[in-house]
Design the sequence.
């Protein structure tokens, strides 16, 4: 095991229209570790994953995956790099015209020449790992949210990627599916020795499984370190986020004119 | 005033930019070596956009042929020229009505469906997840649909023309009593295979490319919300219809207007 980062983010700047999302982000994601990227909603965590996956291009800075600059690759080279990555989407993003079995088989069919019997074995293995071998005949519309995410996880793992990106894996799950997913993600990661990036704002769950944590807010990295070191972090913004305090440096109110003036003025205008 | 000029300039730049995007999109999705899987996907789409549009196109063709014969007969009979009915029905169908009306129907029936389907795949992140799996959605999703439309519409146009001519015969010969020999004979003598049938097919190929291109691009580039999808499907039908009618004038001018 080396200490050379598998993914490096250097001086990343990104703006959407006139809104600046990132103002110089630096990160080093170590191999075979689970790195969490946390931060309040709307700080661009998903955007950061898209930048790492090469779906968006930064305005400045670069992203290196295993030494390759993602945004300088040709379309073809980028797609072949992506074969070494898996991504779990917030919605699951299963192909609605294929059933569970075919969804998991999809990456195998397009990227390998394996015989049908071996594809079947691999698909069943992956589905067994997420506990949904019995659901292989179902269509995505028949799955619950948690099941869809587990199928998507099986699909993301189908090609045994080296890097896996989780986009908000715990959002909107009931306690049971949440527990299942947390345990599953950690167990699979340990068993397969993956490099993982988890984007999330579910503090308790994420801190329980991550090896290293980055907290981003206001387009910058606020703090990073092990989950334990974040607990004792002194920065007020990090403290507010980690301890879930409703008001603090990140205000409860969206910026607007003074409340009193707003109520008294306007004369019927919205 | 200056602000108006600015706005016009901005609009011009944006339009040119999106036209350029659409052009790159077309080139990237159309060319490439098809795999066996690609052929299977293409056949599936030919069924979806072609075979399933057959009923509406053929029924419309029948009625348009019948109306042409009825209108044509009432005018021609005043000059004692009802023998030329077959020629009139065939030429108007092959040169104009079959390519144009089939393309308009195709835009409404298949084009809007293509836009909505691709748009929904985009809204549910299916296209992004395909990209992350390392499969280019332009090749996997867009290309089979583009080629299916390109092949299906000319075939539908041929069907439209054939059924239309038969509908004209039903009304002209069977009902109104035009002599059958002159209906077919005049048609055979006056319709030129290259000049009329061929040019009609060239028109149809152009329309097929433009309509399908607009449909898949609108789906691929839309804003992934429910409002975005509804706007994009509307735009597909409006832009495709206008493009077909505008291009028809241009092509007619070049093919039959003595410009060439």
Sequence:
């Amino acid at each position: 095991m080396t200490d050379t980062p598998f993914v490096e983010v250097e001086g990343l700047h990104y703006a959407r229209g006139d809104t600046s999302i990132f103002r110089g982000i630096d990160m080093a994601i170590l191999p075979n570790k689970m790195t969490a990227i946390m931060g309040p909603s709307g700080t661009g965590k998903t955007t950061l994953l898209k930048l790492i996956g090469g779906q968006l291009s930064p305005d400045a800075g670069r992203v290196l995956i295993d030494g390759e600059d993602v945004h300088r690759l040709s379309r073809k080279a980028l797609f072949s790099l992506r074969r070494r990555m898996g991504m779990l989407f917030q919605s699951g993003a299963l192909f609605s015209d294929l059933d569970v079995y075919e969804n998991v088989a999809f990456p195998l069919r397009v990227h390998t020449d394996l015989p049908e019997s071996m594809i079947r074995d691999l698909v069943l293995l992956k589905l067994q790992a997420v506990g949904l071998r019995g659901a292989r005949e179902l269509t995505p519309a028949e799955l619950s949210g948690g099941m869809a995410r587990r199928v998507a996880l099986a699909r993301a793992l189908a090609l045994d990627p080296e890097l896996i990106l989780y986009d908000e894996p715990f959002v909107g799950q009931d306690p049971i599916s949440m527990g299942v997913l947390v345990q599953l993600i950690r167990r699979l990661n340990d068993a397969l020795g993956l490099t993982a990036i988890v984007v999330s704002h579910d503090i308790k769950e994420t801190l329980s499984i991550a090896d290293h944590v980055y907290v981003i807010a206001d387009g910058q990295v606020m703090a990073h370190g092990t989950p334990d070191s974040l607990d004792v972090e002194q920065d007020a913004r990090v403290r507010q986020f980690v301890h879930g305090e409703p008001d603090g440096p990140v205000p409860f109110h969206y910026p607007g004119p003074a409340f009193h003036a707003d109520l008294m003025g306007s004369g019927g205008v919205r | 005033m200056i602000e108006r000029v600015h706005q016009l300039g901005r609009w011009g730049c944006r339009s040119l930019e999106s036209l350029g995007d659409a052009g790159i999109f077309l080139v990237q999705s159309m060319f490439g070596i098809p795999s066996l899987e690609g052929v299977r996907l293409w056949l599936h789409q030919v069924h979806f956009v072609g075979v399933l549009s057959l009923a509406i196109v053929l029924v419309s063709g029948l009625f348009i042929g019948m109306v042409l014969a009825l209108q044509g007969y009432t005018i021609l009979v005043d000059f004692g020229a009802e023998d030329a009915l077959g020629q009139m029905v065939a030429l108007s169908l092959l040169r104009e009505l079959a390519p144009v009306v089939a393309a308009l129907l195709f835009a409404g029936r298949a084009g809007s469906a293509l836009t909505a389907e691709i748009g929904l795949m985009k809204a549910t992140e299916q296209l992004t997840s395909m990209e992350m799996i390392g499969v280019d959605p332009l090749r996997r999703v867009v290309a089979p649909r583009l080629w299916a439309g390109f092949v299906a519409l000319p075939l539908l146009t041929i069907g439209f023309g054939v059924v239309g001519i038969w509908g004209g015969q039903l009304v002209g010969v069977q009902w109104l009593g035009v002599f059958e020999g002159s209906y077919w004979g005049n048609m055979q003598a006056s319709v030129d295979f290259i000049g009329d049938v061929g040019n009609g097919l060239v028109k149809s190929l152009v329309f097929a490319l433009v309509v399908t291109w607009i449909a898949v691009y609108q789906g691929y580039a839309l804003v992934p919300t429910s409002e975005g999808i509804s706007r994009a499907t509307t735009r597909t039908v409006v832009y495709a219809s206008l493009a077909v009618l505008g291009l028809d004038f241009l092509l007619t001018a070049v093919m039959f207007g003595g410009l060439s």
